[in-house]
Design goal:
The protein has 2 domains: about 170 residues, Probable tRNA modification gtpase trme, domain 1 (Gyrase A, domain 2); about 110 residues, Elongation Factor Tu (Ef-tu), domain 3 (Beta Barrel). It is globular. With about 300 residues, it is α+β, with helices and mostly antiparallel strands. It contains 6 helices and 17 strands.
Length: about 300
């Protein structure tokens, strides 16, 4: 990403959670340790089903007396409703600020020009009282500014940034294996740990219980994980959800996200698989993109 560019992610939504019980409330739900979140650090986390299946992923940022939740906008209302379902009698207030706040992204290089900025994923600083976070999933995704829409363009002007096509940002996210578009298509289709959340700093295996913790811990501790989410490059033809991904007529996975930035769930531990070679997928020919953090 260019140091002078900013990407305004209008397809992200923002919730704000506060109240006397908000720390305990979130800690009992999310896959990461909320104690990591402070004025100086933010984290990536997810909310799973009780069986450990994927539902939502988001970035959590300390803000005033509570927390901002940065999530894909298509499913922000669904996340809002789910959190309210879990709230019960907890002293927690959940606000949907998606019409007032926006998420913008700057390059990592630009982020590091700010005073007190550190080259540490999740590092959080303030600019004109607004948080800027070095993406906790992967630092090459740059710094995220969560800001009131009314303040956005003045900040862009003061920082000498030029608004750019968000496709550049999402192309990069796809290339490094991080799905951010159409994540609702993953819901209930795979375990959270199969979404590469461990590699993306979104799972904490030392914290206490949370929703879906039992199966997640069992898969990890017993080394039962055999599938991972991989980005798919379509070489020929078209693919669709649930298409089988084959190599030498053997099934190694299936398509879970089929549009724009496709992803498939792959049996990466199968001794017969050749990750670097081409696959067939229905009538299409595809290639799996191997993220640089995948070993």
């Amino acid at each position: 990403m260019n140091v002078d560019k900013v990407y305004i992610l209008e397809d992200r939504g923002v919730l704000y959670i506060n109240g006397d019980d908000c720390n305990e409330f979130l800690q009992n739900l999310i896959t990461n340790d909320l104690n990591k979140v402070s004025e100086d650090n933010s984290c990536f986390a997810s909310l799973l089903t009780p069986q450990g299946k994927y539902l939502f992923d988001f970035i959590i940022v300390k803000h005033k007396e509570g927390y901002l939740i940065d999530c894909e906008k298509k499913i922000i209302n669904e996340l809002f409703n789910k959190l309210n379902l879990y709230k019960l009698r907890s002293k927690v207030e959940i606000l949907n600020l998606s019409n007032e706040f926006v998420v913008a992204v700057i390059s990592k290089e630009k982020f590091l020009t700010f005073e007190n900025a550190k080259d540490i994923v999740g590092n959080t600083i303030k600019y004109r009282s607004d948080p800027i976070i070095l993406d906790p999933r992967n630092s090459t995704l740059g710094g995220r500014i969560i800001i009131n829409l009314e303040k956005l363009y003045l900040s862009i002007k003061k920082l000498n940034l030029k608004s750019s096509n968000i496709k550049e940002y999402y192309d990069h996210s796809f290339d490094i294996g991080i799905p951010q578009i159409d994540t609702q298509k993953l819901q209930n289709k795979l375990f959270g740990i199969e979404c590469n959340f461990e590699e993306l700093n979104g799972l904490d295996f030392k914290k206490g219980c949370y929703v879906g913790q039992e199966n997640t811990a069992r898969i990890k501790l017993k080394d039962k994980q055999s599938k991972k989410l991989f980005p798919i490059k379509v070489l020929e033809g078209k693919i669709k959800i649930d298409d089988e991904i084959k190599q030498n007529n053997k099934i190694f996975g299936k398509v879970l996200i089929d549009q724009s930035y496709p992803f498939g769930l792959i049996k990466f531990k199968d001794s017969d698989i050749k990750i670097s070679e081409n696959f067939t997928c229905g009538s299409a020919k595809i290639k799996l993109l191997k993220p640089n953090w995948f070993e």
